[in-house]
Amino acid sequence: MCLFVEDKIMERVAEVKVLLVENVCEVCKIGTMQQTDMPILLSNPPKWEHKCTYCEHRDWYTLKYPYQKFEKVN
According to the lineage, what is the superkingdom (predicted)? Predict the structure, then answer.
């Protein structure tokens, strides 16, 4: 039996900075790849369609670009 005891929770708060991770188009090397509204490709792992913001090249990736990454500030 597991009991939840609120005063036993240990939390730590840290300041972070938010980083934006973009995927630069491999064709034109100018635009960035943005996730489209196309349904997910049910592969293993699943993939999402992306389109270049400059040349409109399309490709499928296992990550949804752009995404946010957090870095702890010392």
Answer: Bacteria
- Measured CA to CA in angstroms, residue 13 lies from 10, 22, 45 at distances of 10, 27, 33
| Cβ-based neighbours of 46, under 8 Å, separated by 6 or more | 40, 62
Does residue 34 belong to any structural domain of this protein?
A: yes
| Confidence (pTM) | 0.75
Domain-embedded: residue 1: no
Number of domains the chain contains = 1
Domain range spanning residue 52? Answer: 13-72
- 6-18 pLDDT tens trace: 666 788 899 999 9
CA pair distance 13, 9, nearest whole angstrom: 13
Q: Is residue 68 part of a domain?
A: yes
Q: Where are the alpha helices (DSSP H) in 1-74?
A: none
